[in-house]
Amino acid sequence: MTSTAHLSIQNVSKIFPGQQDWMSKLQRRSSKDFVALENINLEIEPNTFVSIIGPSGCGKSTLLNIIAGLSEPTTGAVMMNGVLITKPGPDRGVVFQNYGLMPWMTVLENIRFAIETVNPKLPLSRQKTIAQEYIELVGLHGAERKHPHELSGGMRQRVGIARALAINPQILLMDEPFGALDALTRGFLQDEVERIWEQQRKTVVLITHSIEEALLLSDKIVMMTRGPAAQIAKILDVPFARPRHRETLDEHPAYHELKSEMELHLTKETRAVEEARIK
Amino acid sequence: MQNSVIQGTQPATKRISLTTNQKAFLLFLLILAVVLGLWEIGVRLGLFSQLMPTASATIVNFWSWISDPFFNYGPNDKGIGWHLLVSLRRVMIGFAIGSVIAIPLGILIGLSEVTSKAVDPFIQILKPVSPLAWLPLGLGLLKSSENTALFVIAITSIWPTLINTRFGVSNVDPSYLDVAKTLGASRWRTLFKVILPAAAPYIVSGLRISIGIAWLVIVAAEILVGGTGLGYFVWNEWNNLQISSIITAIIVIGLVGLILDRLFGLLQSWVAFGRRV
Ligand SMILES: Nc1ncnc2c1ncn2[C@@H]1O[C@H](COP(=O)(O)OP(=O)(O)O)[C@@H](O)[C@H]1O
Ligand SMILES: [Mg+2]
User: Which of A146, B54, B95, B162 could tie A150 with a disulfide, CB 3.0–4.6 Å?
Assistant: First the structure.
């Protein structure tokens, strides 16, 4: 019953306007317009897991926010199944880096809040059943009545993932979802996402700065150049068979080649960012 | 041999092992004893005015008020419990009126930057006005002294709640709002399910400050307005030159203020869910 979607990003640019009115000039706070993204073109096929990787500050979050509808592109358009995206909507589930859980709601209530918002007419018992289903899916059985502050970071992000999936979105958008977690927990959750993806096979856009994470999870890896005016440098195909396992992944002949290509790209771009900052 | 060493050290470690709270309580008792002792000696040596009772006489008087708080021998001779209830009732009504104005208004201006900026000068100018300056205005506006007391309580308990509510509503963590937006939540649903619960700790901390101020103000208002209440009690006992009764009233006012503050403190932790304000 999972639905999925084709995503088409067409000539998307994003310019953050600077402050150039006389008041800001007087207070020496004026700033120039900032071109974050320039002419991004990307086709994301249904049922594909796509990772976006690039030096920090290049505009990955900006791009994801545009897909989510939280921010508008300055030029260009994002189409989902041929329909222009103009605002956020429950056809896109978003997993936030800082989890975005409501502290005053329990785990169950957080998930049910999402279900009820998207489908207010659903009977309460049905909402609870669905919420429970997704709690089981992410392995949080027993934590239903806990509040977020009683959970570890890893458990909170499980709730975040369950909430995003519980509304049965066509696309799952994740912005560095494991960035705030320790290495061990991150590994657990990556395995979990791989397992869930095997079951649901939704279209996923994942932003990450972990090369291993991208290689473990993705069908395609989009490498972006440094900002300003960030662009897509190269798109890598990840040919590994699924289901994948972190222990055996590096036995694949292409693994090390892909990994070193990504390392090279990231090092080059990050070094250039640092040099630009010194000048 | 070893045994005797262990026995020798145990009592010493036991004495140090008092918890911080136990130590603090002992120190508290010590300070209290010193203050009462100095007071007693000071009065007996004639260091203060003739009116000043000794500490022991004050304690006796305190006990006589506290042990029989609800006697009633006519309008000028009532137990302190009656006055306390009257004051509490006034504070609760005035505070409720103030809060019923402050919270919705705070939400309204917290949601709209334009309204917030437009209303800000009024808040900034009216907030620092002493509660007592409102009294004659209240008398002029309302004629009844009872309503004037409520008016003063209401108007002074508006500001902290109003300011905190506005802050809480306009500073909701943007990620909660993003969540609501990505789910396509309506404005009302976002307001009631996200913004208000997110702002609740701020609103309650505003209420807590407000009730504290209301309790401060009621005594002064009742001194001026007269009739009944703890403020009137204090004034009446001053006219009787009964300093020990005034001290009794001060302690009662302080204790009740403390209890009110603690109650709102409980409410605050009840809506916090691990957040700190
Ligand atoms: N609202 C904004 N106004 C101005 N500049 C912004 C805004 N949001 C992001 N930027 C800038 O755009 C660039 C890309 O940001 P972001 O998309 O968050 O990068 P990434 O997620 O790749 O680390 C950064 O240089 C950032 O400073
Ligand atoms: Mg980012």
Answer: A146
